[in-house]
Amino acid sequence: MTPEPLLAALSASAVPVLPVVVVEDAAGAVPLARALVAGGLPVMEVTLRTPAALDAIRAVAAEVPECLVGAGTVRSARGVADAVGAGARFLVSPGCTGGLLDAMEASGVPCLPGVSTASEALALLERGVREMKFFPAQAAGGAAYLSALAGPLPEARFCPTGGVTAGSAREYLSLPNVGCVGGTWVAPPAALAARDWTRVESLARAAAGLCAGVRRGGAGSAQV
Ligand SMILES: O=C(O)C(=O)C[C@H](O)[C@H](O)COP(=O)(O)O
């Protein structure tokens, strides 16, 4: 069964912003998810970069069902299995290999494999994958680069991540080939370390306000 495309769903939602979080303390994951939901962003990508990540996914999946929790920094078939086993409802990777894509597709949950070049995007399109993460977005060329890909690769839809900020999110979202934007600016490591959920909620609310209603791409506008 082909899972529901993630970017299409986020793009169609009121607020196409994907908070990326690096969780050092699994005990903070539930209040973090609740703060994001309260701020208007009911989705969270937990990067598999810390020992606490899988417990964090497990806790949010069990206790905050209104938050769509997924895993980021998925780099291997093992990471796919661990993340889905913990309850991840989507998977995001910084780059992609054939083996990783096989595992992601077999997982049964929506995936955003990472690319940063036209050739990598073409390789995914060749496999029938139209939704991808563009990483590291800012360092790889930013909105100008993505805009340039829209001509030759009109069917590809991207989630730019890596260096995206409150200041650049709207510019990305105004591109026809961007379905949502992602990043840690909504839940910065310092706020998580301080367990400052009020700050996270207010950053989420600001991001939601900033990005609501921006004209954007997404599967709905994907004309091939
Ligand atoms: O490796 C992955 O799969 C990732 O999830 C990478 C993250 O999306 C970015 O590292 C977030 O970048 P910043 O928003 O600039 O902090």
Describe this structure in words.
There is one protein chain. The protein has 224 residues and is of the alpha/beta class. It has a single domain (6-217), classed as Aldolase class I (TIM Barrel), CATH 3.20.20.70. It is 42% helix and 14% strand. The protein contains eleven helices and nine strands. The chain has a four-stranded parallel β-sheet with strand order 3-2-1-9. Helix 2 (29-39) links the parallel strand 1 and strand 2 (43-47). Helix 2 packs parallel to helix 11 (197-211). 50% of the residues are buried. Bound molecules: 2-keto 3 deoxy 6 phospho gluconate. Residues 20, 47, 72-73, 92-94, 135, 161-164, 182-185 line the site of 2-keto 3 deoxy 6 phospho gluconate. GO terms for molecular function: 2-dehydro-3-deoxy-phosphogluconate aldolase activity. It is an enzyme of class 4 (lyase). It catalyses: 2-dehydro-3-deoxy-6-phospho-D-gluconate = D-glyceraldehyde 3-phosphate + pyruvate.
What is the compact description of this entry?
This protein has 11 helices and 9 strands.
The CATH homologous superfamily: Aldolase class I
Give the distance, in angstroms, between the N- and C-terminal Cα atoms. Answer: 23 Å
Low-confidence regions: 217-224
Q: State the helical fraction.
A: 40-55%
Counting DSSP E segments of at least 2 residues, the number of strands comes to: 9
In one word, what is the shape? globular
Ions, cofactors and other bound molecules = 2-keto 3 deoxy 6 phospho gluconate
Q: What is the radius of gyration?
A: 16 Å
Write down the domain tally.
1
At the fold tier of CATH, the topology name is TIM Barrel
Tally the helices: what do you get?
11
CATH architectural arrangement: Alpha-Beta Barrel
Can you list the strand order of the major beta sheet? 3-2-1-9
Major sheet details: 4 strands, parallel
